[in-house]
Amino acid sequence: MYLVIITWLYVTLMMAVAEATSSTGSVLGAFFTFVLYGLLPMGIVAYILGTPSRKRALRARDQAEQAAYDEKLAAQTHSQSHGQTPQPPVAGTTPGAETAGSVAPDAGSHAAAAAESQLVAPVRKEP
Fold it and tell me: Is residue 21 in a domain?
């Protein structure tokens, strides 16, 4: 992938040099030739071709965060089941909040929200 990109940038650089040194060319024209024929298209191609590797890296990071969260949750469950007193949670946080990843639903084990009052009509779908 990178060989094609480097080769195309070399070709467009040579086109720009030829235009800049030509008697009818200009340096401004050479600059736009290099940018519009070389850098812009190859930047788009490199971005598109790099998408699978970015997705793999994102998936690996998410799996590592989930594994760390699961391990911490298992350690807390293990310490609670063996009679050890659990660490008091910090006010305003949920278990696993210090990790910068996703948190499992209902991780805080809080009670469900109260029912809506009857003053507000429920929203329905149109038939």
Answer: yes
Q: What is the pTM of this model?
A: 0.50
Q: What is the pLDDT of residues 13-60, one digit of tens each?
A: 999 999 999 999 999 999 999 999 999 999 999 999 999 999 999 999
Residue range(s) defining the domain that contains residue 15: 2-40
Tell me whether residue 107 is in a domain.
no
Q: In sequence order, what are the residues at sequence separation of 6 or more whose Cβ sits closer than 8 angstroms to the Cβ of residue 19?
A: 25, 26, 29, 30, 33
Phi, psi of 25 (to 5 degrees): -95, 175
> Whose structure tokens read 């009679």?
83
Domain count, the chain: 2
- Residue 30 has a CB neighbour count (10 Å cut-off) of 19
The gap from C-alpha 21 to its chain's centroid, in whole angstroms, comes to: 44
Angle at 115 between CA 110 and CA 120, to 5 degrees: 140
